[in-house]
Amino acid sequence: MLDQAQRILKDVFGYDAFRGNQGAIIEQVAGGGDALVLMPTGGGKSLCYQVPALLRDGLAVVVSPLIALMDDQVATLDELGVAAVALNSTLSADEQREIAERIRRNEIKLLYLAPERLVQPRMLAFLQRLQIALFAIDEAHCVSQWGHDFRPEYLQLGQLAELFPGVPRIALTATADMRTREEIVQRLHLEHAERFLSSFDRPNIFYRIVPKEQPRKQLLGFLAERRGDAGIVYCMSRKKVDDLAAFLTEQGFPALPYHAGLPNELRAYHQKRFLNEEGLIMVATIAFGMGIDKPNVRFVAHLDLPKSLEAYYQETGRAGRDGLPADAWMAYGLQDVIFLKQMLNNSEGDERHKRIEQHKLDAMLALCEETRCRRQVLLAYFDEDLPQPCGHCDNCVDDVQTWDATEPARQALSAIYRSGQRYGVGHLVDILLGRDNDKVLGLGHQHLSVFGVGKSLAEGDWRSLFRQLVARGLVDVDLEGFGGLRLSDSCRPLLRGEVSLALRRDLKPQQAAKGQKSAASQLVRIEERDTWEALRALRRRLAEEHGVPPYVIFPDATLLEMLRSQPASLADMARVSGVGARKLERYGAAFLEVLQGTSEPARSPIDLRHELVTLARAGMTPAQIARQLDCSEKNVYALLAEAIGQQQLSLEQALDLPEDLLGEIQEAFLDGEGELPPVAEIAPQFATRVPEAVLYCVRAALQAEFEL
Ligand code: ADP
Ligand code: ZN
């Protein structure tokens, strides 16, 4: 049977080998047994039921909680030439009847359903008259009442065991914890299911956590290395989401907001754009997440601290589902800690519940202040042992230092105590540094014995120290809202000199920025850029034609392999991972042409402009773009100016001008009142220095900026 499974894997899906447990799981289910599958996001869960569905006779029924997920899966299967449909409320009665007919005629292999629909008596009766190959229950953790994805309808899926004896059932989830696992087994009656546990490590994700100083600037620094990549930026509040999305767009990083306060249609529209377009950034509250199956999310950035490691793991896990390099980046500071502690304090719920939440937050804070390998710590929290440091997180590659902070910590505690345990970090640092500003003098704090004792450390060091004292629970924050610090009981041994304290030495921002080179930017080498963009352009065009997201045509990994292995014939093409029989037939020739550089597709002006914008955003110069698009440089400049004028591109994306020269040109345009002068008027003074075409672009940018 495994032989046959292998053949399906290659013929239909185009893959050469099963990953991890896939082979064993498929054998179990195809052989008629039940399975419980725990696999991280991106691990390849879908194949675990799709291959058995093709191996067994009859209809495979897949339960999935979200319409968006189902549509995506059906589109993907459709592209592979597998007959799959989703029955959902968006279909008309006629369409539904037709699907039922096709199912009766055995024309459908996989049927995707929402749980509430599956358990309708009519639906169950309909299915009982058919031969059922298997039931797959995706996102099976939705059955858990303790998780935040709880779906009451999932509880009713337990009855499948009785109603369909002998039909194998496979439950799948990316949620790791023990309690959820046991709940799934119990509620779905999977007592006899074989359990398949995978490692929850996501080796392709690079983790980095930096101290928060100027978050927007830091974020821009992080994004600068990632132009043209799709990513998610998480923030706590709706307002922050809106503001940040606008700010990023202004800065030339196209970004969309997503939060529960937006009208439903707008949210759905933004989600759709995120899936279908390349290189968009989604700025979101945690309302955005489940149902995001976009495989080529290249980074997840947190500007606010998640409240637990579970949340952090899940949110960062949305990066790099396709297995290609991806980044998880977070900026974290004292304000985050104070804010989350206040939230916790003000939350409803009993003491026990609060204590649990407090422990979760503490674990999250510990990860932030960690000096050992982040991945080891993260996995250990989920009871998984990674024997060696991973070599693929900031702590591993930056060689983080600790320093003996015993003495300064005692000075800091003393400053808190002597000033009456009511002031925030700013004031405490002023005291330690001996700053006699109005507040200090007004309170007479220049007379405290700790006044000025801390001059050997810089302000930033003190702030970092206070943050770590709070994160470690040595100092409490006044939770009424003023951020005043108090000593906690656990700091006594330190005060009494019984223990010492080693703290993390924060990297200077420049140092940290150096380490921000994108994992993904190393994917495509400069000299491969042109071909890469051409492959992507073709994929985008095909995706638009077929009305599916680009990754459904081919995932990035497949395009990348084409780029590397340079197939020269359809036979070569068939060997590329991800190229199955159907896709070879449909798309093989077109991609071959691009690779052989013979492609001269007819392009509409709109296509041309679209491509040009993409290439410019990807960092190509006008000359490179001209070569790539096979048109004159003059033409490219004209189109660039147009795109800038319509704010599809920023000037920085379009041109690489020295800053002072740019300043001079801008001044020349802005010299005077009202309308900008025409290019011809200022052209002579720059004649020897820049092509006239550049002036058009600068003018367009000014016009767009000032709406002149
Ligand atoms: P999950 O549902 O576990 O998050 P998916 O089923 O969406 O993961 O798979 C993630 C990606 O890995 C998809 O692009 C899928 O096509 C790919 N994939 C799955 N199994 C294999 C395999 N055996 N070889 C190569 N790619 C695979
Ligand atoms: Zn590591």
TrEMBL record:
GO biological process, one term: DNA recombination
Key words, A-Z: ATP-binding, DNA damage, DNA recombination, DNA repair, DNA-binding, Helicase, Hydrolase, Isomerase, Metal-binding, Nucleotide-binding, Zinc
Domain Helicase C-terminal: 215-364
Span of domain HRDC: 525-605
SMART domains in the cross-refs: DEXDc, HELICc, HRDC, RQC
Enzyme Commission designation: 5.6.2.4
Domain Helicase ATP-binding: 26-194
Protein name: DNA helicase RecQ
Organism: Stutzerimonas degradans
Gene (UniProt): recQ
